[in-house]
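Look at one record.

>
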Amino acid sequence: MKTAAATQSSPACSELPENSAPHEQQEPLALIDNFRSSPFWMAACGALLGLSAPGYGLWMLAWLALIPTLGWVRRRESWKQIFQGGFWLGFAYHGLFCLWFFDLHPLTWLGFTDWGSRLVTLGGWLIIAVEGGLLGGLLMLGYKALKTEWARLLLFPLLWMFGFSMLNWTPMALPWALLEYTQAPLWPIRMLAALVTGSGVAALVVFHNVLWDVLRTRHLSGRKQSMAAFALTVPALIGITSQAPPPSETDWPMPMAVIQANLPIEVIRSARMTPALADEAYLSPARNAHFPPDTLLIYPEEGVVPGWVPLENPERNLMIRRLQMLAQEKQLYIAAGVSSFDASDRQHNSIALIPPNDTPVRFYHKRRLVPFGEFTPYGFGPKLTELLSALNVGYSAPYTPGDGAPLLQANGLKLGGLVCFELIDSNPLNTGYAARYQQAGAKLLLNTSNLGWFHENPLLEAQFLAIGQMRAAETGLPLVIASNTGTSAIIGGGGQVINRTIPGANASRKSRILFYNGASVQNSTK
């Protein structure tokens, strides 16, 4: 009787009304399943990948965030849906990686109203994010097109590597959010980059994600379990070994120093930037400091030389003459960012190298210009000028790119100049600007920058430093970053940061000197 009663009652227990508690408990799970089947799931994965960027401190996410993404693509049948999902992946990845772009606001010092400044900033960020989204969509289509596991393992990392290299090939492309930069703070990875370049590092990270996606589709037993365990330990081992002291670096070509005045962009780009202020902020700290003979003193991209420098007769500029006097007085080689023009009135963003003797001043002219900031691509200049004039903003992007890559020389050593944005130039074929300098016999890379456009954003500063570390590791050359605000750094040939300014410590606006003499490091303030 007891059994029969239980049997008879069981249908009643199993047939629950639609509004019962068990059904309600299933609804959140259904919502989660629906979200995971939508392209917006890819945006969540892209956000995780973006959080691996330098500045967030979550580098390990780069080794894992693509795994659910690749599985999502593999299960989809609609090419349209795959492209949409890839778009949101790339959009979120680039958008979060380059979130520092929002600190371009305020641009009111350029004449924009507050809302106009916010609109321009948002538009610039959207260009970066959409560009990444389009590339992400194409890459996910490529992953779906690869039908075999071996093709995915071997070809997709190469497809990713060369896909992101395309961002170097057009004037509008901004190859900033490269995956290898997420790993640049780790010295084992930088040692690997010296062998396979940064692009090879990106391919390895993508390979790790693909390997896990392939292993997830199979029953793991025996040898495959060992493979899975090894794959999981790769990022863990990197993290553990990164805690050990990096290799020491003492092979420096010459003593060097950087003077960072910490003057904001609103001052440097205004009438307040007079020769008297430049002398106080940049020259006076050098006069009061002691340097070994033949030290290379490096000034940032803008500020130290107000006005324009004529290439045929640079001494016509007052600050050039003062720098020449300082070089002779202190027996220094001085590299400074200047704006110059030639006999044809072509204007350049340049590095001037001033020797401590009667040798003429030599110049390097920036080759890769910032779109819309320094030049207007695709002939949009007149239309953009007309558009911005309606906002009472006088638009000018007057610079001409330099021809060739002349090496500068200091104390008989060849130096490679990189002005600001040029530091990001890299590709899998190892033909980027820094790599070509190394092949031409350069012994040191110089980067003059003005990061003040982004108002000391800590994400930008961490990422710019990581990019410099990767360039130094790839080439094996020491690299010096001289910036007006934010991060200036002296970086060894393996990417080790020897000395740097500390982000957020510049509120006093005092000039800061970074110094390295080959044996000891000093850091002083005016």
